[in-house]
Amino acid sequence: MGTSHSTVANHKTKTKHDTGLDGQKAAESFLQTKDHKVLARNFRIKTGEIDLVTKDGEYIVFVEVKTRTGLGYGFPKESVGAVKQSRIIKTALYYLASHGLTESNMRFDVVEVLLQQGQVYVSHIENAFSG
Predict the structure, then answer these.
(1) Are 28 and 64 in contact (CB under 8 A)?
(2) 128 near 111, Cβ under 8 Å?
(3) Given this model, what pLDDT does residue 14 score?
(4) Do the domain assignments include residue 35?
């Protein structure tokens, strides 16, 4: 019983940023088990950010990681709307151009991470949207 209480207390002290970092680490580890090679983390330009850029076979994959500690606001993927997608696409095109990869195949994935009661649940949605 003490361990359960301790877990809850530690969870309450985490900031939203800490939770996001935990989710990104979980997503990265999960993708690596699927043979993704991480090319970049938190790639930022003025107009947007991409959480992870990976290489999966012939594809450069732009990954949006969404982490939640509950489903009160719906599934994490539901927060990747049209405006967010547009920003990710623009940032991805800049990444490709700045790295000499404009001829590469690309795709946009979303990784949902749910952190609940000390458990980590990961769902990988390939081709979550198109650019």
Answers:
(1) no
(2) no
(3) 73
(4) yes
